[in-house]
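Minutes, project check-in
Item: structure for the 113-residue chain
Input as provided by the requester:
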Amino acid sequence: MSVFFLIALVFGLLLSMVGAVALWRCPFSPVRRVSFLSGALLVSLAVGLYGQFGLAKERGQGPNFALNAAVVAVGFLLLARSQRELVEGALAEKRRENASDGEPSGMTEGPLR
């Protein structure tokens, strides 16, 4: 049974590497790149957590699983924060491009009147 969980962990790592390569190579917009990468990382974290749960349950290591779950939760929080920063940066870049083209971006900086 532990072979299955090790395969799941390796699969999760491969998925995150594919997402990292796609971030630099895909021709999509920055927002789509970030969405694809974050989706791959979330799947990787979920598969890793599932594998860790199976290994801890098989070995009878409850506290070890709790520590791993805490590390994965911190990883989720850091991923969400970095995704938000990347998307905000991509949207700011898009606004600058629209402003340099002379076209209105449709986004206002202040309160609506």
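Outcome recorded: The helical segments are 2-25, 30-59, 62-101.
No further action items on this chain.
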